[in-house]
Amino acid sequence: MSTQRPSGPFRYGDRVQLTGPKARMHTITLRERGELHTHHGVLPHDALVGLPDGSVVRNSSDQEYLALRPLLRDFVMSMPRGAAIVYPKDAAQIVVHADIFPGAVVVEAGVGSGALSLSLLRAVGADGRLVSFERREEFSDVARANVETFFGEVPSQWDVVIGDLVAALPETMPDGSVDRVVLDMLAPWECIDVVASALTPGGVVLCYVATATQLSRTAEYLRATGLFTEPEANETMVRGWHVDGLAVRPDHRMVAHTGFLISARRLAPGTVVPERKKRASKTSYGDEDVEVWTPGAVGDREITDKNLRKRVREAQRAADGARIARDADDSAATLD
Question: What is the value of pTM for the model shown?
Answer without folding.
Answer: 0.81
